[in-house]
Amino acid sequence: MALRKLGDSTYLYPGSPSTMIKVLKEGAVLIDPGHGSGRHKDLKREVRKLWVEIKAQLATHGHADHISVAPRIDAPLFMHRFEFSVAESPLNRELLTFGSKAPKGFLVFQFPEEVKVHAVFEWGDKPFGLKAIKLNGHSPGMTGFLDGENGVIYAGDSFFGERVITSVGLPYLVDPELFKASITELKNYAEDGFLLIPSHGRPVEGEEALELLDFNLNRVEETESLILDILREGPMGIDGIAFRIMKHYGAEVTPQKLALNLVPMRAFIAKLHNEERIEAVIDGGLKWRIRRD
Ligand SMILES: [Zn+2]
């Protein structure tokens, strides 16, 4: 596969996640190096074709599929401070995507090794001239990188291509309110003419970007009201609710996908509980029901 040129000094190497490459005088910066047995070699080869060396790596967040080749590339890795321990500890990574140590082969992407992070940044910082913008909700420190020179934002997993969402049923998130706020932020950038790059999906701009962002936003808002509709039929546990939502959206229900969806589902339940719209009940297990008062 070949690099796609996004601007004077910015390129995209395809994949899921795709990797953005920013060329500076002092060398190239990789954003989300990704995963896979040969990917580090592919990235090194493509950067060599640009006649520069890899100077640094940035990651949007610590999920294994975004960073697992980072240790095989000889350049320091930078990440938001909230994601630092997620990248470094494989157990923390499993905790974030499963809730505890995960059964072997159970997660969509599992990587049992530590990934060393060399430095952390804050939102608002400009590591290598790329502004770190707060796009969390998918994970605690999910960060987008804004390349003002070329009008591009590498948006990580703050939104997804339609195919990814359709296959799982829901966008993966750990806080629906933060996730929605990030989408709203991205809509402002889309209106300002920025090209938005999701890690899993095609880069979008203009009307197409706004439509895809709305698709993400609607799926989250619709899920909230679907949960309430389901609970109006009677109390239900989180597994049951997640199963019903996946069926509603026509997603194939596998043990792996259902386990993955339990994480966003718990986050939705927490939100509805905090808004005093549902309450917990013990009924052959932990179940949730509509509040009647
Ligand atoms: Zn992710």
Task: Explain the overall architecture.
The N and C termini lie far apart (59 Å). The chain has a 7-stranded mixed beta sheet with strand order 1-2-3-4-5-6-7, covered by helices on one side. Strands 8-9-10-11 form a 4-stranded mixed beta sheet, covered by helices on one side. A two-stranded antiparallel sheet has the order 12-13. A hairpin with an 8-residue loop joins β8 and β9. It has 9 helices and 13 strands. The protein folds into 2 domains: 4-158, Metallo-beta-lactamase, Chain A (4-Layer Sandwich), CATH 3.60.15.10; 224-290, Arc Repressor Mutant, subunit A, CATH 1.10.10. The protein has 293 residues and is α/β, with parallel strands linked by helices. Residues 61, 63, 138-139, 157 line the site of zinc ion (ZN).
SSE layout and pairing:
Elements: E1 4-5, E2 10-13, E3 19-24, E4 27-31, H1 39-48, E5 54-58, H2 64-67, E6 77-80, H3 84-88, H4 90-97, E7 119-121, E8 131-134, E9 143-147, E10 152-156, H5 162-168, H6 176-191, E11 195-198, H7 206-232, H8 238-248, H9 255-274, E12 278-282, E13 286-290
Parallel strand pairs: 4-5, 5-6, 6-7, 10-11
Antiparallel strand pairs: 1-2, 2-3, 3-4, 8-9, 9-10, 12-13
Helix pairs in contact: 6-7, 8-9
The structure holds zinc ion.
The main pleated sheet reads as: 7 strands, mixed
Kindly report how far apart the N and C termini lie: 59 Å
Indicate the radius of gyration in whole angstroms: 20 Å
Order of helices and strands: EEEEHEHEHHEEEEHHEHHHEE
Bound molecules: zinc ion
CATH class of the largest domain, please?
Answer: Alpha Beta
Helical element count?
9
Poorly predicted segments: none
**Helix/strand-derived class?**
alpha/beta
Q: How much helix, percentage-wise, in residues?
A: 25-40%
Q: Number of DSSP strands?
A: 13
CATH topology of the largest domain: Metallo-beta-lactamase, Chain A
Look at the structure and name the CATH superfamily of the largest domain. Answer: Ribonuclease Z/Hydroxyacylglutathione hydrolase-like
Shape: globular
Keywords: Hydrolase
Domain Metallo-beta-lactamase: 15-200
InterPro entries: Metallo-B-lactamas, NDM-1-like, RibonucZ/Hydroxyglut_hydro
Protein name: MBL fold metallo-hydrolase
